[in-house]
Amino acid sequence: MKKQMLRFSRASLIYHTRHGETMAAENLSFTVDEGEFVAIIGPSGCGKTTLLSLAAGLLKPSAGEVETFGSCGYMLQKDELFPWRTIEKNIFLPLEIKKQNTAENRERARALAVKYGLGDFLTSYPSELSGGMRQRAALIRTLATDPDILLLDEPFSALDYQTRLNVCDDVAAIIRSEGKTALLITHDISEAVSLADRVLVLTKRPAHVAFTHEMDFGDVKTPLSRREMPQFSGWFEKLWKELNQ
């Protein structure tokens, strides 16, 4: 049996405002196993990012439980690289924040950058890199502290379509090569199908899991290759219908 890395057990979240209460999520129950790549899609405004905040421990559920079994790294929609720091210094930033800025950890982060094609850009500044390279740097920064679980908040949404396809392949390859567990939030059905081992479909607010699907692409893991397979369009149509019920 695979080790569970993340577990939502009948988790609910209520936002309290001056105007009353808003139920953002209700009875959310699902798990993410070690080494698994899970994508979550849902209607606009259903609370997908709220779910990541619960997983990261930034929010506490109003009822039920959210348990993580390991450390988390959070990758945002935009790369958020500091323009006044070199790529190397940006990658080292989490080590500084978490007081893990040792020579050994810096060398490990530097080795990741070299391994995944950023070796020639470590002394460059973000403005000198393409959008795709910047997003790759953001992922290496997230990996710098060696988190067990990666929480991905629509990490390709700020990129143009062609760049998004290429970066999606890059990011998937890095995550799988490093053996990381990943939870992706996305509004893009094609992205979810092409990347994930399993796709969860949320209802409109208050969000709960309406459908769970295992992707049947066999050993084909690269997003671009999956998009060329005959079952891809079938999954897209099925998920589109479920989102619009």
How would you explain this protein's 3D organization?
There is one protein chain. The mean pLDDT is 91. The protein has helices at residues 48-56, 87-97, 103-115, 131-143, 161-177, 189-195, 223-227, 231-243; strands at 4-17, 20-33, 37-41, 63-68, 72-75, 149-153, 181-185, 198-202, 209-214. The protein folds into 2 domains: 4-70 and 148-243, P-loop containing nucleotide triphosphate hydrolases (Rossmann fold, 3-Layer(aba) Sandwich), CATH 3.40.50.300; 80-147, no CATH class. It contains 8 helices and 9 strands. A hairpin with a 2-residue loop joins strand 1 (4-17) and strand 2 (20-33). It is globular. The longest helix is centred in the last third of the chain and has 17 residues, at 161-177. It has 245 residues and is α/β, with parallel strands linked by helices. The strands form 2 sheets. The protein has a 6-stranded mixed beta sheet with strand order 5-6-7-3-8-9, sandwiched between helices. A 3-stranded antiparallel beta sheet has the order 2-1-4. Helices cover 36% and strands 26% of the residues.
